[in-house]
Amino acid sequence: MRKKIVAGNWKMNGVQEEGQKLTSEIVNMLRDEPQKDVTVVLNPPYVHLHGVNKLIAGVKNIHLGGQNCSDKASGAFTGEISAEMLASFGAEYVIIGHSERREYFRETNALLTEKTKQALANKLTPIFCCGEPLEIRESGTHEDYVKNQLTESLFGFSENEIKNIVIAYEPIWAIGTGKTASAEQAQEMHAAIRQHLAGKFGSAVADEISILYGGSCKPDNAREIFSKPDVDGGLIGGASLKSRDFVDIIKSF
Ligand code: PEP
Q1: DSSP character for 2?
Q2: CA dihedral (158, 172, 49, 23) positive or negative
Q3: Considering only CA atoms, which of 88, 23, 31 is closest in space to residue 56?
Q4: What is the pLDDT of residue 35?
Q5: How far, in Å, is the centroid of ligand 1 from the Cα of 177?
Q6: Which of 120, 146, 171, 198 is 20 to 30 A from 54, alpha carbon to alpha carbon?
Q7: To the nearest whole percent, how much of the chain has pLDDT over 90?
Q8: Rounded to an integer, what distance in angstroms lies between the CA atom of residue 253 and that of residue 94?
Q9: Residue with CA nearest ligand 1 atom 8
Q10: Does ligand 1 lie within 6 Å of residue 235's CB atom?
Q11: Least confident of 112-116, 172-176, 204-208, 243-247
């Protein structure tokens, strides 16, 4: 059985009090409305990790993640955060290769391999993001584009390593735009991704890998998207900043 996962990507939002309030609300709601089969991951900005970790301590099924990590283990890289540091603050997951990092910080497929290696070496589960821009979708080459992202970044890993990676398909044209991929578009791409992984690592391995959808996922569209056979959950941006919306998305399975 593949893990069902709903991960919240807070991005660069929230001062300390807001992060604490948001976490407490989510924890309380999930206590009152438990969702036993869904793994919930909160990915706050780095400075919130310690505080959020304290609030989720002992709460089943809520886990902590970073939004990024360095491709290096340690050293003179001012401003960077290592995977080992994230793990030492209680993180179990880390988002790698979000489209905002690829675009604004020029993260390449090769760099993302190194970040993924760092995550795995420190027992963090990478949530590896892929997805095409609008012009690629419109040109009809979106499947090849996404497959190439995965091939270039992840096909050097072993079967055992890839099993510990979560994929997040996030069409860039749907991120923060209010324009969601249809459930059919999501299923089509998720199936193509799984088939691509099966071609390299075998179908038994590909069947174990959770593939999340991300891009304007909200309480009113999550149920339909999550009902598709190859969609194993969501990576949620804007709606993860509203406790009620985030919990309602978690309850959409
Ligand atoms: C994201 O940035 O990972 C994301 C999916 O954002 P949003 O839900 O706001 O589109």
Answers
A1: P
A2: negative
A3: 23
A4: 85
A5: 9
A6: 120
A7: 95
A8: 23
A9: 237
A10: yes
A11: 172-176
- State the pLDDT confidence band at 179, using cuts at 50, 70 and 90: confident
Q: What would the mean pLDDT of 110-137 be, rounded to a whole number?
A: 98
Q: What is the mean pLDDT of residues 80-89?
A: 98
Both tokens of 136, joined, read 């690629």
Q: Is 75 exposed, middle or buried (0-12, 13-18, 19+ CB in 10 A)?
A: exposed
Atom number, ligand 1, closest to the C-alpha of residue 129: 3
Does any ligand 1 atom lie closer than 6 A to the CB of residue 176? yes
Mean pLDDT of the 36-65 span: 96
* Cα pseudo-dihedral 244, 60, 159, 148, rounded to 10: 10
Residue 55 predicted with pLDDT over 90 = yes
Report phi then psi at 25, rounded to 5.
-65, -45
Calculate the CA dihedral of residues 34, 251, 240, 99 and round it to 10 degrees.
120
Long-range contacts from 110-115, C-beta under 8 angstroms, 24+ separation: 110/152, 110/153, 111/71, 112/153, 113/152, 113/153, 113/154, 113/156, 114/71, 114/72, 115/68, 115/69, 115/70, 115/71, 115/83
Task: Count how many Cα atoms sit within 13 Å of the Cα of residue 196 in the half-sphere of its side chain.
Answer: 20
Which pLDDT score, from 0 to 100, does residue 234 have?
Answer: 98
H/E segment holding residue 235? strand 233-236
Is the Cβ atom of 124 under 6 angstroms away from ligand 1?
no
